[in-house]
Amino acid sequence: MTIETRLTAQPAAPAETLNTKDMRRILASSFIGSAIEYYDFMLYATAASLVFNKVFFANLGPGFAIFASFVTLAIGYVARPLGGLVFGHFGDILGRKKMLVLSMLIMGAGTVAIGLLPPTAQIGVAAPIALSALRLVQGIAVGGEWGGAALMAIEHAPAKHRGFAAAFANAGGPAGAILGTLALSLFAAVSGNQFLTWGWRVPFLLSALLILVGLVIRLQVSETPAFKRLEAEGERRRVPILDVLRNNKRAVLLGLTATTAFYVCQSMTTVWGVSVAIESGADKNGVLNIKAAAAVLTLIVTFWSARLSDRFGRRRLLAVGTLSGVALAFPIVFLMTNGTLWGFAIAIVLGNGLVQGLLYGPIAAYVAEQFPTRNRYTGASLAYQGASMLGAGFTPMIVAGLALLTGGLWVIGGFWIAILFLAFVAVRATPEGTKRDLD
């Protein structure tokens, strides 16, 4: 390819504003698509706290049933790095858009199948085995989703708005959690005593309709300018993961450590917190409604902190978030376990709304900006989804285990503080990415 041909083949640089028709469509696609996929993924997390221990692990004692339920929850998070690697590889080779469409189709199929799965009382041990396999499918799908959605927003956006643009992909997470929680709460009220028989299944089956909506939106967006430039220059690698491991190991480790703090906050408040609040005597429907309301606050704080990160830097906002979590960890843990709705409400507003929101806003841009275009999907997904496995996948199981072994809330709070402090150290050791040229 001649120099003249390469120059004419270069796609135009991103616009200098987010307020264009194409950019609005891209941000909407990132937000709505992620919300639908996380509706599916986080719906499972809520059901793991309330349903699966009774439907698929009813032959175990209460403590071990919820532990087993959280083990299946962890399987989805363990699968996310695998999904990130597979989708990241092809996303760096074939493009971001194709992988986003494929991940959504896989997620929808897995979620609907969970809604149709017979209980252990009907098919025996095959039920929890199938549940685990379908959770694996969910994990692979959402592992590929985040990288594509975040990069579609970041690589289209002007440099001075990258953090805010990336937040649309991240904000799909709490938005999906709101939809999933409200759907489960609605059908818990509608089905009454039949909730464990059929009521919990309806929100899973509704995923089929949501997936169709998401596909229509995603098929209308274009591939990113950064990937088109890379494609025009012929610089793509055949095996992006080898490039990441050779040249970007430090970025992966620091990004993974920093992101783990966000996922631990999410699991402590919205998974373990929901379960322990209900077991301590708080009303189930009240807990679910408060959780959904707190997710709205998470959305607001996410966009706010993302906007501030464009102005003051990712590192500064993430440092504020981790230190806020350190200061609030013990009060949150004790409030979640006092058996009252008001205690749970204060705890989840502080932990899920404030601390998680502060961390969530800048994190997508923070991770993605550490990698070059040729391996950004793979590298960012490896760091982010590795953190999801460690922080969200294992935290409910670890905390439930600590509760069984020690019964001490101080140990649980100390575990949370240790993770937050490690994230603070990682953030301070990472270069600031706001001024970095993505190419």
From TrEMBL:
A GO cellular component annotation in the UniProt record: plasma membrane
Keywords from the UniProt entry: Cell membrane, Membrane, Transmembrane, Transmembrane helix, Transport
| Gene3D superfamilies linked to this entry | MFS general substrate transporter like domains
Where does the record place the Major facilitator superfamily (MFS) profile domain?
Answer: 26-431
Q: Identify the PROSITE patterns for this entry.
A: MFS (PS50850), SUGAR_TRANSPORT_1 (PS00216)
The protein's topology relative to the membrane is: Multi-pass membrane protein
- Location(s) in or outside the cell: Cell membrane
Q: What is its main location?
A: membrane
What Pfam families does the database record attribute to this sequence?
Answer: MFS_1 (PF07690)
Instruction: Provide the transmembrane region boundaries.
Output: 31-52, 64-87, 99-117, 123-143, 164-190, 202-221, 251-274, 286-305, 317-335, 341-361, 382-403, 409-427
An annotated Gene Ontology molecular function? transmembrane transporter activity
Name of the protein in its database record = MFS transporter
Originating species: Sinomonas puerhi
